Amino acid sequence: MPAPKIDSTEELSASEAKWVTLRRIYWSDPEGKKRTWECAERKTRGKSGIDAVAILAILRSETNAFPPSTLIVEQFRPPVGKFVVEMPAGLIDEGEDPEKAAIRELEEETGFKATRVIETSPLQVCDPGMTTANMKLVMVDVPVPDKLEMPEQKLDVGEFITARVVEISKLAAELKEYEKKDFVVDARLSHFASGFELAEKIQQGKL
Description:
Elements: E1 20-28, E2 34-42, E3 52-61, E4 69-77, E5 82-86, E6 89-91, H1 98-110, E7 116-120, E8 124-125, E9 134-144, E10 162-167, H2 171-180, E11 184-185, H3 187-203
Parallel strand pairs: 3-9, 5-11
Antiparallel strand pairs: 1-2, 3-6, 4-5, 4-10, 7-9, 8-9
């Protein structure tokens, strides 16, 4: 299968765009000065007011066959023109809550089935200076009865996603290796890995 690549780009008018549009915002700053701002806005937001979920899957062996691990996915992202490593994620379908969307998306992208939701974050914004896009982070429990095996993914037509299992304690180091391979690391995944690494250093008195 040939490697994905960007063939060409062109300007797109807001009226032609299917998933996003551009918006000019008129606002007043704390001194009362009138200002304007430009941003991208999703057209796909449903009644829930939440665009998407990112999924932090906690894989734990019920027989202690492997250390606590998580799932990451690799896929080519045309806006940056590179492969990106990130958490499993996806848009929330109409009528879904974030928890149901997270369990569905995790199984579609990785094949793993979560048995319960551990925690759901408050509403978060991804790039508030540029877009209205928002999301929730859903942490889910994925118990593994015996040895670790990669189940079959349930990808939609046109999706090309590689799923991997990584030990949580080794995630930060693994992401540094991805950078050497010219991957782009998603900020949400990077921040989680950095936070976990920092917590371990504080616990061990290494700071």
